[in-house]
Amino acid sequence: MPGFFSFLCGFNRRTILISVLLLCLISGIVYRKQRTLPEKKILLSNELVFAASFFFFLLIRMYLPKIYRHEKFMDFAFFERSYENFFFPPGRSLVCRWFP
Fold it and tell me: How far apart are CA 54 and CA 43, in angstroms?
């Protein structure tokens, strides 16, 4: 939701901050109506699974930071267009900009 709201109103600090605060407000309202939380044991196990998988993939990227095969061209195109523009999402990428 914050990304979509920022996309509609333009990507800058103010709109991103407003969209995150709006998301927090909506989450708070939903929590007040629901007022139930999962058991601490289940919540802790979910967080541990997430943290373990996150650090596993982080470890893989630390030792193998190379971008493979066809990803290179698309990543380069995205980073190039992001660097050239002052707004998000970036415009047409690499080859597409020469064609209408």
Answer: 17
Query: For the segment 3-37, what is each residue's pLDDT rounded down to a tens digit?
Result: 676 677 777 788 888 888 998 899 888 888 887 77
Task: State the residue for tokens 């190379």.
Answer: 66
User: Could you identify the residue written with the tokens 């407003």?
Assistant: 18
CB 76 within 8 A of CB 94: yes
Q: How far apart are the C-alpha atoms of 58 and 64, rounded to whole Å?
A: 10
| CB neighbour list of residue 93: distance below 8 Å, 6 or more residues apart | 74, 77, 78, 80, 81
Here the tokens at position 33 are 């109506």
Place of tokens 């020469």: 98
Q: What is the pTM of this model?
A: 0.45
Q: Which residues contact 40 (CB under 8 A, 6 or more apart)?
A: none
* Two tokens, residue 78: 């995205």
